[in-house]
Amino acid sequence: MCLATVYKENDNSVIFKNVSRIDVEGNKIILRDIMGDERIVEGSILMVDLAESIVKLSCE
Question: Which of 23, 36, 42, 57 could covalently link to 30 via disulfide, CB atoms 3.0 to 4.6 Å apart?
Answer without folding.
Answer: 23
